[in-house]
């Protein structure tokens, strides 16, 4: 008997869920501070306007950037990033399901990691995602969503999902932020606004998550790879 497709029902529930604590973090986006982003200018100039927007990660990154941009739920201003914030989907969502939620709800994040540990990107890494419901948090933090394995009240996240999210976070600390991950720069969503995200399960394993991020940071820092925006785009396979 085929498994039940929970994506559609979880998308609907996620859209209707109150008090998510996400969004732009301000009612007047015209008053956002000017960009303080100065990194990677030479790389962008050399790559030219046709360069792929996804990060040059060492694993595939599905590209949903243009589709998310079409929703209007992102601010295309770049800022210096100093932290990573982890979220949960509040649902057992696919990458497409996450986009479907954000087409309706005024929210976004830079990345999503699904139940299989696969990565998708929705917002360019230095841009202002509508992720944490706090202006400074949206300016300064890279937001990574994670698919849930179970729903309320525990909102568990599978080990494959959170470990791949931790690895992705470690890459960003090494390649974008340039600081070792610690309690002062690896956050859950509830650090920024009134929400239970990333859920009680993730709260219980924070120390384990931080250790995994630090291990990934050490790996990528030692690899001496360079952030370049001209990585090849990964085709998105639609499964509906």
TrEMBL record:
Residues 83-200 form the N-acetylmuramoyl-L-alanine amidase domain. Residues 1-32 are annotated as: Disordered. One of its GO terms (molecular function) is N-acetylmuramoyl-L-alanine amidase activity. GO terms for biological process: peptidoglycan catabolic process. Residues 1-20 have a biased composition (Basic and acidic residues). It comes from the Bacteria. This is N-acetylmuramoyl-L-alanine amidase domain-containing protein. The lineage of its organism: Bacteria, Bacillati, Actinomycetota, Actinomycetes, Kitasatosporales.
